[in-house]
Amino acid sequence: MERGEHSSTDRPLVSWSSVRRGRRRGRDRSYRGAGKRGYDQRVTDTRVSEFTLHRRVNFYEVDQAGIVHFSNYFRYMEEAEYGFWRSAGVSLEPTPDYGFPRVAASFDYHAPLRFDDAVAVRLQIAHIGRTSLRYACHITRGDTRIATGTMTLVCVSPREMRPVAFPADRLARIAVGA
């Protein structure tokens, strides 16, 4: 696999529970090591602009027509989003100072997915603003384009629910994709 690509079947470097315990005790909050679903979370000093998640379609994700229900594509994009931020060494977990609600999301569907299809969910940063960022998402099965979408999130103050500037430490870890 190339840099920035991860499989949900990769073996974790450490258990997710040990990472969480360390955070509760006030240790390093950078999410180094591995975590939930086996993502490799080794952190580098370079900025991250995209992330590719490899997964298979589960039986519970298909509808009575035998194809993936449209709502699951948004879940795939969100799963890739969390993998993206883990690969950058930070979390989207809300803090007392920042929250990251999604304010827009859309998908265009080009071909169906079926149970047990192997898919790649590529998430790329398309735009970084002062208080928001937009992702572009491309879901493929081999060389077949399945769906394309976007999602926008905004950094807000949880107390006032008003937009605030993205934290500089998070911006320092990411870049707009080429």
Task: Give me a quick take on this structure.
This protein has 178 residues and is of the alpha+beta class. The protein contains three helices and eight strands; from the N terminus they run βαβαββββββα.
Describe this structure in words.
The chain is α+β, with helices and mostly antiparallel strands and 178 residues long. It has one domain: Hotdog Thioesterase (Thiol Ester Dehydrase, Chain A), CATH 3.10.129. It contains 3 helices and 8 strands. A 6-stranded mixed sheet has the order 1-2-4-5-6-3, with helices on one face. Strands 7-8 form a two-stranded antiparallel ribbon. Strand 7 (156-157) and strand 8 (162-163) form a beta hairpin.
Structural topology:
Layout: E1 5-7, H1 16-24, E2 50-56, H2 71-87, E3 102-109, E4 118-128, E5 132-141, E6 144-154, E7 156-157, E8 162-163, H3 168-171
Parallel strand pairs: 1-2
Antiparallel strand pairs: 2-4, 3-6, 4-5, 5-6, 7-8
CATH topology: the name is Thiol Ester Dehydrase, Chain A
What is the helix/strand order? EHEHEEEEEEH
What is the CATH-assigned architecture? Roll
Structural class: alpha+beta
Search tags:
two-stranded antiparallel ribbon; alpha+beta; Thiol Ester Dehydrase, Chain A; elongated; 6-stranded mixed beta sheet; single chain; 178 residues
